[in-house]
Amino acid sequence: MNRIGGILLAAGLSDRMQGPNKMLLPYGNSSVIGTTYQALAQSRLLKTVIVTGRDAAQVQDQILLQGDDQIVQNELFTSGMTSSIQVGLNELKPFEAVMVCLGDMPLLTSQDYNLLINTFEQKCDAHNILVPWFQDHRANPVIFGSDYFDDILNHAEPNGCSGIIKQNAEKVLNLNVDNERFITDLDTPNDYEKLNKN
What we know:
The chain has seven helices and ten strands. By secondary structure, the protein is α/β, with parallel strands linked by helices. The strands form two sheets. Strands 1, 4, 5, 6, 7, 8, 9 and 10 form an eight-stranded mixed β-sheet that branches. Strand 4 (47-52), helix 2 (56-61) and strand 5 form a beta-alpha-beta unit. The longest helix is centred in the middle third of the chain and has 14 residues, at 110-123.
């Protein structure tokens, strides 16, 4: 199996950032979202769908699209992360699995993404969910096999798909990862300060 698509979530409100949109903050040679997308674009994903919401035009300007990748806007982005996952998944229904990626994790490398993709291909199929763990922390991104696409599209919980993972615990493959990058996201000004020290 190698038909894995990616959903890159870049639609959030950045409420806890106290003003700026965290996706647009400078990072590396680009921005937080630009750097995150660059790593995904260099991974083995066949296609990535970037979902925008707040400041959609400015976020789109940060992304140099490659291959078959595309940008879609979630008109309901204020209703929570789940709606953005659903918008992205609608573009990836023919795929055998999707990796749900957060736009505020610019430390992740293409090798990190490939570790998850390769593990899913070797050990999982459409019936499985691959969840990375760093020490005792559930990490990101998560890969969902296509058996769960309908569950995701019908999911009513606004803040993501952790409920689907819990309901299907017997089908989850937990993968221990050895790097804090898999849990380092960006929510507050303090997080951004720490990120820039890396």
